[in-house]
Structure formats: structure tokens, C-alpha cells
Design brief:
The chain is α/β, with parallel strands linked by helices. The chain has 4 domains: 40-220 and 402-408, Rossmann fold; 224-382, Rossmann fold; 432-561, ATPase, nucleotide binding domain (Nucleotidyltransferase, domain 5, 2-Layer Sandwich); 562-732, Nucleotidyltransferase, domain 5. The strands form 5 sheets. It has a 7-stranded parallel beta sheet, sandwiched between helices. Strands 10-9-8-11-12-13 form a 6-stranded parallel beta sheet, with helices on one face. It has a 5-stranded mixed beta sheet with strand order 16-15-14-17-21, sandwiched between helices. Helix 3 (51-65) packs across helix 16 and helix 21 packs antiparallel against helix 23. It catalyses: an N-acyl-D-mannosamine + ATP = an N-acyl-D-mannosamine 6-phosphate + ADP + H(+); UDP-N-acetyl-alpha-D-glucosamine + H2O = aldehydo-N-acetyl-D-mannosamine + UDP + H(+).
Length: 754
């Protein structure tokens, strides 16, 4: 296939954004008009330079166009949009039914450093006349291209307010310097991630003029995957291609090291030829070095190779479908580390062009891509995998936030920027209404009886909780989990919470790396070899973490409880069963086969009662709720349980609570059973102290307060003197399982550094 793109399509039908904005509440529109006064429409100039920035700007443009009572839209097209070698991509703007007010030919050909500088100069010469004619109230500028720097410079010098999209991000090339330079010229900022927001604050930008909205392209991405994609795949790659069995390659020159980036591109093509899979190769952008990269493509015969399709441009709607169903994407485009994560498609990021970007699990970095073998090995590792969907860069609601932000701009305020020099304001994020939008997690707790889902904030507040009986079959249980999670995720918008991911706490042995329940306890039926991560991630477009309930309890203590700041501690759950988690050097221990911290199955007697695990004399066989219930039934059957002050209805089930009540009321046999249980638990704790030597033991669960004194007594009698100083405390957390599930999400998403 040659370099010609498919023939021009008819104008696209009006998208969901336009329909959404036309259906906005009339009352709400009226309120905003009254607030702004004199019915002044905000005149917005959107300037787009290339195919990449248009994919981010188009959703905003649709939103602006759909509200003519608030906005007037002027579209200026410049840069590589108007160059035939780069696909004449201005046509896709026309196909989207936008009127282009001005076309500016600003690219000086040469594709080297000098040509980039000359292109900036040419744009600076031409833009003043356009801006004088348009007289916009505000100009929207995207990203970090040299064309965008010319736009921001012109607008700033002509006293036109600038709204910068995607400021505060970090990549790894000259783009960083350009992006931050535009930030200093811009009056308002729309950023995509929490880290970007913090970077803007650190750069002394006024926090009141920063909006954490997410990436506008995600508004389209997250609703795109279910469309008819096979016809698109066949159109670009051939009739015989299957989903997940092709590669999308997009690599640009690195302007700070052109020679190395061309060599890396050559090695990439060699690796792709050797890998022998159908590959769609997009031409690089207009940066210095792109001409040499095209020469490399032609030297290797890529345009005529049977396995390759080389194209100058793919419309964004179609590009979404191509990457969503690819076996892999390779290159150094920001699209790979940003947008593609929304689909969980594997990505190989080559070189340093995106160093510093926040990425999902789907991205494998080959920083020093200096040999064909390295790149080929990365292809072998990544091709065909499916990762959890990532929403690091957006939740699909960016455009409504941006439009509300635009409407809030007071044109009567002084134009001169104010910089907020240190000390920086508190870490507060603004949403559509300029109030705190809380970073939160969906927490799921799978117990033997109940299934619970909660929205948990970063501070450990349970904002909303849902409880249902845990179904007995796998199919019913998974269906209920998905239903409850979808309901909670929808409610999160109403309670002003931004969901970062889903954390699941479940009984049994769990492989947290894969999100699979390997096998479960007898308390949860049909719960072995269950992949929880994939269906939930696919349904919610959120990353999902899964771990054992004991481990989750330990994580809850580390983040919210007594274990906060403690380097080495152990948590013991005393409930229906006995479980726990071990924190060593601030990290959770899983063990080589994910069986660490099965503390309930420490054997404290060789001839003790039989445990549910099949062994004898385990702590759980003495001290769990099930064990106490068993002993209570024995006493009740012998009419030795009830004492004065106790009564039971005929149909009432005997439980551990009755045993505890009897002991408190002076039943010596009940008291003896509880003392034996406490001693068994204490001996188990002594074994833990002698093995792990923690500085803290936390007893959690409904039985913890009944056991704490017994455990301390056993430690004083049985432990080595060097460990007797350990602190033994009762957890103060009301819901450690849910808080632990939430911490899986909150800890991971807020501490990842690449």
C-alpha cells in the first residue's frame, strides 16, 4: 500500500458531545448569562497546528459550537495541517463541519533546527494581522509544539487572554521547555493529571486559574470501543487482518538528538520486519529530522513491503479503533503513553521523548533502544497482551468542566497575570464548580456472608456504602459486583468524588499481580481460579487491584491506622476466621506463592481441634468465630451455656456472641473456652514475634477486644525477653477490609513515578 490515504469522507454526523451540550438545562444557561451580565458572548479563537492537537481540541470545539448563546467560535489553522506531505489534515476539520476562518502557511520546509526557528518567526509575522481582525476574548492553545509557542507569544503581546491545554506535564525533550514557556505566557490552565496540576502550582501559577479537567480526547475515547471497528481495520491494514494481530507504529524525531533518533527509527523498522506482523506505520511529524526518517522508510522499502501499510494521516475516530484493537503500539508518540492506556493495548515506548510522562501498566519502556534485539524482545513481551484500562489522563468528563471554566472567566478582571510565589497554597483541586473534587477509590469487600462496595476518599472517609448478600454462585456474584460497582461509580459524580480505580478484598489465596483468586476458603463457594481484574476493568474502564482480606487489613492499618509510619508490624484479624498481613520495611509481604501471612494456620497444638484447612491445632481452630460457635453449641447441647441473665429464642442460632455473654455473666466453662482461645492466639503471636520481630501487633476484627489482654499475658510468659517490649493494640478502624481495598488503589495511583 502506498502513502495515499483513503478518499475523503462525507462530513461526519453530529457526535454525542454536540447532542449533550444542546440538551443542557435552559435554567442553568439563564443563570450563567445573568452572572456574566450584558449578555456578552465569549469570543473564543481555537488555533490548531497539526493532527495531534486537533484530536484534543476538537471535543472542546464541538462543545463551544453547540452553545452559540454563550460563545462565538473562530478557527485558525496553521502549521503542518496545510502541507500535502503530512496529509493536508485541515480537511478533517472541514469534514467535522467547522468553518475555518483563517489558513496560515507558517511552515518553512527543511525539517531541521533552523527550519523550526524560521517557522516560528514566520508565524509571528503573520499572526498579528489575524488577531487584529478577529479580536478574540480568549485564545485556546494546546500542548508543546513550536507552532503553539508562536501562538501564545502573539496572543500575550497583543493582550489576548490565553487558555493553555495540557500544561504542567513532563515528557523529556525540547517539548518540555516549550510547554513550560507557554505556561508562563498563559492566563488560564487546563491540566489532565494531579501531577501536572502540582507542577503548575510549583511553577507559581495562580491556583484559582488552574482546572484539573482530564484530557478532552478521553471524552471520545471512553465511548469509542464498541463501534464497528472491523471495517476500519480492513480499510487500513487489509481484508485478512484479525484483531490483536497487528501493530501500529508511530515514531517522531527527537529534536535534541536527531542523529540518535533516526538510528533508533531504523532499528525499530528492522525489528518490525523481523517480527513479521502486519504493521500500520504513520509518517512522523514535521519536527527537525522527520525528512531523514522518511528517507529511512523508503530506503527499507516500507511503503511497498507486504507486511506494512505506510500512511501520512488517519482520522482520529478511525485511529482510536485501530489502536484499541491492535496487538501492540510501538514508537515514541505521546498518544502511546496517554490515550492508548484507555483501552489496555500494550505499548512499547522507545527512547527518551516521553520520559517523565505518567503511564499505565500497559507501557513497557525501552529507554536505551540501541539494538534491534532489545526492540524485538520488547515486541515479543508485549504483543497480544491485554492490560487493565487506565484513566490516568481523564474520566470522560473533561469538556463539560472546560466549558464551565470558560463561562466563569470574568473579562473585567485585570489582564496582567499574577504569580503565586512560595509558600504555595494547599493541595486543593478544583472541579467544574471550583470546589474540591475528592480523589477516591471504589472498595469491594467479598466476605463469607455479605458483598460490600464503598466509595472511599483519600483521607479514609467512607463516603457511600452499598451492602448485599454474597451470592452462592460465581456467575451471580460477578454480576452483582459489576452492578454495584457501576452504581457506585455513577453516584461518585453526584458526591463529587473522582474514582481512581477499584480495590477488591477477598478471602482466599490471591495472585495480586494478575488479579486472580487462586483458591478460596470454604466460606466463599465457587471462587477458585477467578480472574476479577479483567471483567471489572473492562466494564468500568478503571484499573483494578485484588488482594487477600488479611493483606488488605494490614494495608488499611499502614495508611489509616496504628501502622501509619511504622516500618515493621503485623495485623491479625479475629473474626469468622483468623487471618492477617505482614508489613516489613514498609512493604506488604506476599510470599513466593502468595501464601504469606496465613497466620490463622500457625499450629499451636499437635493434637488440637480440627481446622477447616484440614490440619489440627491451628489458631483458627481455637480462636476464630467459627471455633467459638462450635464450642458454644456443645455447651448449649449439654444445657451448660445459659446462665442467669441470659435467654434465647427457640429458633435463635447459637453464636460466639452467646459464649462471650455467658463468660461475662460468670459461666466458668465459657470463660475457660475463651481463655484457651486467647492463649492459642497468644502463642501464635509469640511465634510471629520470634519469626518476624515486628515492633507492633495490631488485633483487628470483632473479637480483638476480647483477646488483647490474653495475648499480652502469653507474651509476658512465653516470649523471649528481647521481643516482650512489642506493642499490642486493638485496631481503631471501623472497616479495615474496605479501607484496605481502597488503599490498594490510593497508594498505588499516588506514588507511581516513572
Amino acid at each position: 500500500m502506498g502513502t495515499n490515504a483513503p478518499p475523503r469522507r462525507e462530513p461526519l454526523a453530529r457526535g454525542p458531545h454536540e447532542v449533550y451540550f444542546k440538551n443542557l438545562s435552559k435554567q442553568k444557561q439563564k443563570e450563567v448569562m445573568e452572572k456574566n451580565g450584558n449578555n456578552h458572548k465569549l469570543r473564543v479563537c481555537v488555533a490548531t497546528c497539526n493532527r495531534a492537537d486537533y484530536s484534543k481540541l476538537a471535543p472542546i470545539m464541538f462543545g463551544i459550537k453547540a452553545e452559540p448563546q454563550f460563545f462565538e467560535l473562530d478557527v485558525v489553522v496553521l502549521g503542518s495541517h496545510l502541507i500535502d506531505d503530512y496529509g493536508n489534515t485541515y480537511r478533517m476539520i472541514e469534514q467535522d463541519d467547522f468553518d475555518i476562518h483563517t489558513r496560515l502557511h507558517t511552515i518553512v520546509r527543511g525539517e531541521d533546527e533552523a527550519a523550526m526557528v524560521e517557522s516560528v518567526g514566520l508565524a509571528l509575522v503573520k499572526l498579528p494581522d489575524v488577531l487584529n481582525r478577529l479580536k478574540p476574548d480568549i485564545m485556546i492553545v494546546h500542548g508543546d509544539r513550536f507552532d503553539a509557542l508562536a501562538l501564545a507569544t502573539s496572543a500575550a503581546l497583543m493582550n489576548i487572554r490565553i487558555l493553555h491545554i495540557e500544561g504542567g506535564e513532563v515528557s523529556g525533550t525540547i517539548d518540555d521547555s516549550i510547554r513550560h514557556a507557554i505556561t508562563k505566557l498563559a492566563h488560564y490552565h487546563v491540566c489532565c493529571t494531579r501531577s501536572a496540576e502540582q507542577h503548575l502550582i510549583a511553577m507559581c501559577e495562580d491556583h484559582d486559574r488552574i482546572l484539573l479537567a482530564g484530557c478532552p480526547s478521553y471524552d471520545k475515547l471512553l465511548s469509542a470501543k464498541n463501534k464497528d471497528y472491523m471495517s476500519i481495520i480492513r480499510m487500513w491494514l487489509g481484508e485478512d487482518v484479525k484483531t490483536r494481530d497487528y501493530i501500529v507504529a508511530l515514531q517522531h524525531p527527537v529534536t535534541t538528538d536527531i542523529k540518535h533518533s533516526i538510528k533508533m527509527f531504523e532499528l525499530t523498522l528492522d525489528a518490525l520486519i523481523s517480527f513479521n506482523k502486519r504493521t500500520l506505520v504513520l509518517f512522523p511529524n514535521v519536527d527537525a529530522g522527520s525528512k531523514e526518517m522518511v528517507r529511512v522508510m523508503r530506503k527499507k522499502g516500507i511503503e511497498h513491503h507486504p507486511n506494512f501499510r505506510a500512511v501520512k494521516h488517519v482520522p482520529f475516530d478511525q485511529f482510536i479503533q485501530l489502536v484499541a484493537h491492535a496487538g501492540c503500539m510501538i514508537g515514541n508518540s505521546s498518544c502511546g503513553v496517554r490515550e492508548v492506556g484507555a483501552f489496555g493495548t500494550p505499548v512499547i515506548n522507545l527512547g527518551t521523548r516521553q520520559t517523565g510522562r505518567e503511564t499505565g501498566e500497559n507501557v513497557l519502556h525501552v529507554r536505551d533502544a540501541d539494538t534491534q534485539d532489545k526492540i524485538l524482545h520488547a515486541l515479543q513481551l508485549q504483543f497480544g497482551k491485554q492490560y487493565p484500562c487506565s484513566k490516568i489522563y481523564g474520566d470522560g468528563n473533561a469538556v463539560p468542566r472546560i466549558l464551565k471554566f470558560l463561562k466563569s472567566i470574568d473579562l473585567k478582571e485585570p489582564l496582567q497575570k499574577k504569580f503565586c510565589f512560595p509558600p504555595v497554597k494547599d493541595n486543593i483541586s478544583q472541579d467544574i464548580d471550583h470546589i474540591l473534587e475528592t480523589q477516591s477509590a471504589l472498595a469491594v469487600d467479598l466476605g463469607g456472608t455479605n458483598l460490600r462496595v464503598a466509595i472511599v476518599s483519600m483521607k479514609g472517609e467512607i463516603v457511600k456504602k452499598y451492602t448485599q448478600l454474597n451470592p452462592k454462585t460465581y456467575e451471580d456474584r460477578l454480576e452483582l459486583i459489576l452492578k454495584m460497582c457501576v452504581e457506585a461509580a455513577s453516584e461518585a459524580v453526584n458526591v463529587n468524588c473522582r474514582i481512581l480505580g477499584v480495590g477488591i478484598s477477598t478471602g482466599g489465596r490471591v495472585n495480586p499481580r494478575e488479579g486472580i483468586v487462586l483458591h478460596s476458603t470454604k466460606l466463599i463457594q465457587e471462587w477458585s481460579s477467578v480472574d476479577l481484574r479483567t471483567p471489572i476493568s473492562d466494564a468500568l474502564h478503571l484499573p483494578v487491584w485484588v488482594d487477600n482480606d488479611g493483606n488488605c487489613a494490614a494495608l488499611a492499618e499502614r495508611k489509616f491506622g496504628h501502622g501509619k509510619g511504622i516500618e515493621n508490624f503485623v495485623t491479625l484479624i479475629t473474626g469468622t476466621g483468623i487471618g492477617g498481613g505482614i508489613i516489613h520495611q514498609h512493604e506488604l509481604i506476599h510470599g513466593s506463592s502468595f501464601c504469606a501471612a496465613e497466620l490463622g494456620h500457625i499450629v499451636v497444638s499437635l493434637d488440637g481441634p480440627e481446622c477447616l484447612c484440614g490440619s489440627q491445632g491451628c489458631i483458627e481452630a481455637y480462636a476464630s468465630g467459627i471455633a467459638l460457635q462450635r464450642e458454644a453449641k456443645k455447651l448449649h447441647d449439654e444445657d451448660l451455656l445459659l446462665v442467669e441473665g441470659m435467654s434465647m429464642k427457640k429458633e435463635e442460632v447459637v453464636s460466639a456472641a452467646h459464649l462471650i455473654q455467658a463468660a461475662k455473666l460468670g459461666n466458668t466453662k465459657a470463660d475457660s473456652i475463651l481463655r484457651t482461645a486467647g492463649t492459642a492466639l497468644g502463642l501464635g503471636v509469640v511465634n510471629i514475634l520470634h519469626t518476624m520481630n515486628p515492633s507492633l501487633v495490631i488485633l483487628s476484627g470483632v473479637l480483638a477486644s476480647h483477646y488483647v489482654n490474653a495475648v499480652k499475658d502469653v507474651i509476658n510468659r512465653q516470649a523471649l525477653s528481647s521481643v516482650k517490649t512489642v506493642d499490642v493494640v486493638v485496631s481503631n478502624l471501623a472497616d479495615p477490609a474496605l479501607l484496605g481495598a481502597a488503599s490498594l488503589v490510593l497508594d498505588y495511583t499516588t506514588r507511581r513515578i516513572y
